[in-house]
Amino acid sequence: MSKVIDKLNNSSSTFVSFELVPPLKGSDVNVLYNSIEPLMDLNPAYINVTCHRDEVQYIPNDNGTYSKLTLAKRPSTLAIVAAIMQRFNVDIVPHVICGGASMAKIESELLDLHFMGINNVVALRGDAEPGQKRFIPDPDGFMHSNQLVEMITRLNHGQYLDPRIQGISTDFCVGVAGYPEKHYEAANMQTDIEHLKHKVEAGAHYVVTQMFFDNNKFYEFREQCRNAGITVPIIPGLKPLSTARQIQTIPQAFHLDIPNDLVNELQRHDKKEDQYQVGIEWCIAQCKDLLAHDVPALHFYTMGRADNVRQIVKAVM
Fold it and tell me: Tell me: the pLDDT tens digits for 116-152?
């Protein structure tokens, strides 16, 4: 499989990539395949596969105590990667997260991915456990994603957690997340850029941003990164809005602003199909402007839907 950084450095034109949310556990594998199939004729450079931490529930016992139950609500990353490799000829970029995992568990997952021929990952801290107000790492895990990047870099040099192991060197290309409107936990934009710089200094090869709806936010972020000495490629992440209701849900979930012009245009329409088209047209305009400003790639968060992304890509590429 090709590395993302090689695609970024060697491509003569802007390419597209897509991000998928794995189906819920118990779903037929065709649910996964049906979400990918409509995207394949768009010639994606790669497909990202998100990762979700296990959830913990406490079940009451008859004696008044509680039993801890850990639930995985989606198939494992390895299962999703294997299913995609079996069906499609496309490079895969799985997410690897710190949340809910020990260092040993993360190392094993990375080595399994390497064993399967995967040489691209996105390294993320992950969200807090549902019900918790702040991120709490596994007792033997990582608090920050730059520590995860450092682990991957060490593995790329053949350095394992257990120094007695003389294993092969991995060959991962590492992507990390950037936030054009600041990570919600960061004190300010400057400190958030410094956190991103730590990830790059730890060995990250490129940055892919959280979604945004105002391109000026991305251009300002990119300039701040360059001024801070972050020179790796920065890929804009995009998601078309599909309903007026997302005016409330998206900012709450992702801590970002939606431009007033987009809000007003969505609220002008009562029919869902008209709101859906507004989201498509706004994203098309975003993409055309980004292409005019020399972005290396366009990364789309599909959220399990392909028809709107198909219309957008066909309109701009």
Answer: 999 999 999 988 777 778 888 889 999 999 999 999 9
Domain count, the chain: 1
Task: Assess contact for 20 and 304: CB atoms under 8 A.
Answer: yes
Contact 202, 153 (CB under 8 A): yes
Q: Is the pTM of this model over 0.70?
A: yes
The answer to whether the beta carbons of residues 277 and 311 sit under 8 Å apart is no
Q: Which domain holds residue 44?
A: 4-316
The candidate with the shortest Cα–Cα distance to 23, out of 33, 14, 11, 38, is: 33
Tokens of 252: 């709450």
DSSP 164: T
* CATH assignment of the domain containing 117: 3.20.20.220
Alpha helices in the chain (DSSP H): 4-10, 29-36, 77-87, 103-115, 145-156, 189-201, 215-227, 246-254, 260-267, 272-292, 307-316
